[in-house]
Structures are given as structure tokens and as C-alpha cells.
Amino acid sequence: xxxxxxxxxxxxxxxxxxxxxxxxxxxxxxxxxxxxxxxxxxxxxxxxxxxxxxxxxxxxxxxxxxxxxxxxxxxxxxxxxxxxxxxxxxxxxxxxxxxxxxxxxxxxxxxxxxxxxxxxxxxxxxxxxxxxxxxxxxxxxxxxxxxxxxxxxxxxxxxxxxxxxxxxxxxxxxxxxxxxxxxxxxxxxxxxxxxxxxxxxxxxxxxxxxxxxxxxxxxxx
Length: 221
What we know:
By secondary structure, this protein is of the alpha/beta class. It has an 8-stranded parallel beta sheet. The relative contact order is 0.16. The model has no long low-confidence stretch (mean pLDDT about 95).
């Protein structure tokens, strides 16, 4: 099946108010161009250098989302153009994004990544830790950062009910934090190729779908 066909299929399964991020990480520019030519404009990458290289050669009306773990020393590569950083999982990273955004004279929109999965390998804030951090009003001192919502990854399991529980926890966390930020805090990024229908049922407003659109990734490149 073509990328355009798969993209159309995934779109057909989503409510109109759910945003689709086509996860293009490790896929070539040609694959992104095919999705672009089919009308898609929002793409997700997980490696800052790869993201910058693709930004430089592809149309400038693309919205680039950084969805993978982001090291503080790599923020500078994407700060001039990135639309949304999903994976802000520490105070140090948020503060680095503020510095780099200020250097570029722009405001960078971010999501706070909250850890709900049971695997130790998953990153993200513990909710208690995040609430404590927010209690110190740090974002009032970050004029170049705009917190738009939360992101999370469910436990990697075939147990649909376990996945649903993770997403329900993330939605409750979102509802708890929303009053701290106001109406612009309206993005709940959860759900990937294998579990996004459950995420949408649980209140996701943004899904990150890669393999269903582009096929399996080639990690040897």
C-alpha cells in the first residue's frame, strides 16, 4: 500500500478534533515528501540532527514535532524552527529550551512528558515531582516557553486494559494540571500505531503514528 493510501486510512479512523502526527523518524526524505504531497503537514522526529537535516531540504510550511527523548545539548539544533517539543521530562530540559528559544527570539511550545508506563525504561516526570515543580511557578519565569499540554506513552503490552488504565491516568493528570495553565493547555498527546484507538477513546487530542503510515522503520541506517 502507498504512503498516501495508508495516511488516508489512518485519518479516516480519527475524529476531526484529533491531530495526527506522522512519525517519520528514520524514514527518508522521499517518504515524507509523498505524505506531504498527499496533503499532510505535521511530522514527528526523535533525533535532533536528523530533524534539522530534513527541515533544511523539505518545504518550510511543515510543522516539525520533536517526539523523542531530547538531551539538553541537542536543543540548539532544533530551537530555531521546531513547532512543538513533546518530550519535556525534566526541569533542566525546560530551562534549556527557554534559553535557546530566547536566543532565537521565539517562543517554543512544549508538552510535559508524564510517566505512566510500568517499564523502568520509560522517561517522564513522576506526577508528584511535576506538581512540586509547578508549585514554584517556574514557567512564569520562562517567557519563551509555552506549555500546551501533556504527553505520555503507555506500557508496552498486548493487554488492552492495562494500556487503557495508563491512558486514563494520563487524562486525569491532564485534567488536574489544566487549571494551572489556562485555555492554551489543550493538547494531550498519547497513542501510537498499535494503541491510538484506545488513546482516542480515553481523551487523546493528538496521536503519533509512524509504522501504520510509513511501514516498519529501518534502524540500521
